[in-house]
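Task card 7
Instruction: Convert sequence to structure tokens.
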Amino acid sequence: MLNKRDSVGLIDIGSNSVRLCIYKGNMRNPDVLYNKKFFCGLGEYRPGTKEITKESEKKCVNSIIFFNSILDEIKTNQNIAICTAAIRNASNRKQIVKQISKVFKGKVITLSGSEEAELAAKGVIAAIPNACGTMIDMGGGSIELASINKNKLNKIKSFPLGILNFEQKDKEVKNFIKELSTKHKLQKNFYLIGGTFRSIARCFIHFNEMPLNEIHQLKINKTHFKSLRSKISTLNYEQLSKVPKISIDRVKHLHIALKVIDQIFSNTQCETLIYPRYGIREGYIYSKLPKKLQNQDPTEISLNLIAKNRCRFLLFNQRSFNWIEKKYLQFKNKKLSNERLRVLKLACQISDLGWEQGSKNRAQYALSSILNLPLIGIGYNEKILIGYLVYLRHCKEILSKEDCDKKIEKVISYLSEEERSFGYEFGSIIHFLYSWSKGSSAALKNLSLKTDLQTQFELSEYQAITKTNKVYKLFELIRSF
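Output:
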């Protein structure tokens, strides 16, 4: 069992590469301190056999020796090496595991196919707590399937069929398609894990010039996929190699990922492909957490830590949300969904982000900072919406929605009209609350929407706080929503 504040060094020994990730911080949403891989080709067996070659074995062992030195530098609490399909299916598995165990300063685990599928699916649950659909994890030597519903897993299956051998295993391809078309036929959402699947997402982001270079919770529907596949088919190897964040090795195998996705859409009722940030490594960490920690909101954990480190008015930010919930919404007789309340609470939590920047740059800086945070547990649009709310908290042109929006139109174009209206309304309120109180949570105590602002100012204990004409206009603006 992992503790809340452990640090973990986790080596993922896959069919293509050997990767070390070091996690530190709150284990429900840990920081990744180190992420490095070496291509070792363990899944490229000796021709006609299932034997890992001496060359690949040597590369793997040397990678682990190097990673030991990193683990010594960072001084992690726990170190684990996870062996997957390449070693699991190898005829010389015992010899390879023995060599790894000799040099690695930690515990070595060889996962079965079903264990690998289960951990990958738990990675999806950790990153997207309300996930519902089928997880597909495609690595170099295997494909794993599992259905997810209300944090429960079933229909777990692993196939010895991966990027490296997909085109040589017709029988296994047929078995995989049969599994899709029978046990996963009715699923609407498919969660894709694996480097080559991620490369498809990178192409989608690049060709659509999306404002966020963000894979987590990226969604691709059937129509968009067909368009993307057509685009990729017109490009040669050199052109695809220029897509940002796609390695040369991944470009070679893009066509296989496209074939697998074709099978998903052809044999199921899939409507949406969804990309989680997490996979098998994070699924392993999640599986070792106590239930209480698993159930915590990972987005709130991350933003709370950011607020403590980078914001000044923690109590004020909390009471801003309380004021909106208890006074503004009641005054307006409005009711927000739980999802909207959560977004609003998270935005208030970090509404002071960017305070140290110059006033001209503050709003853009806050928005950019939020969009680049590696958050989990939150949707694509929700992240943009939080950024928009905090942007408006700082925006000097707050009295004109048009002036506020035109500077960031490309980013907020992904929001619906309803989301943009919500953002401007509540971003204006957060802006007003700070303008009125200058960060003093005590100044919010008796603030009311029922009485005109001048009267409240004259009766207030905080008359030392200068009130500009803009504050009065903001007050009337929020009363008019």
